[in-house]
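Protein modeling request. Please complete all fields; requests missing the sequence field cannot be processed.
Requester role: graduate student
Desired output: 3D structure, token encoding
Chains: 1
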Amino acid sequence: MLKRIIDIIVSFFAFVFLLIPFTIVCLLVYLNLGWPVLFTQKRPGKKGKLFKMYKFRTMTNDRDSNGNLLPNEVRLTKFGKLLRRSSLDELPELINVFKGEMSIVGPRPLRSEYLSYYSPEQARRHEVKPGITGWAQINGRNAISWEEKFELDVWYVDNQSFWLDLKIIWLTFFKVLKREGVNSAEDKFVEPFRGAKLNG
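Delivered output (200 residues):
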């Protein structure tokens, strides 16, 4: 209950405080990538329940002659890479937090098609709400393996507390400023399972 109250307060005041930057990013996304400015995708939340996650768009909608979207790495623009490196593309997730679908702190929500690949232990990351930032994000982010990320996520589930959340939020601020743990924009497209079960 306390965590939910904190999520509501932090997401509300963060949105108010960041309203001008939010508006500027909206305008820049529109000028660089067109409409819509938001990217939405169904992601699994607590207990695997799907919800619509919001992010700023970082890719074009360019398609081939058959009408199929071009590969992600082709559609990702320099502007989109800048948004991802700065984590500004994550700002709309404050809406998900305010709605109660996400938390400020928790395991990052991954694509729904990955659900069937988790081992029972890895699936425990869904015992809590997904977060904008989390224990894995301040302990390596894209610089560690997916197996290590999942281990850190489960560790958070077992050790979550008010003080741990404060520590994660505080360290996230400096990680984003220093851009630690971010290798390249291409890391965003690495499939964590490579077509095989991690526990297989």
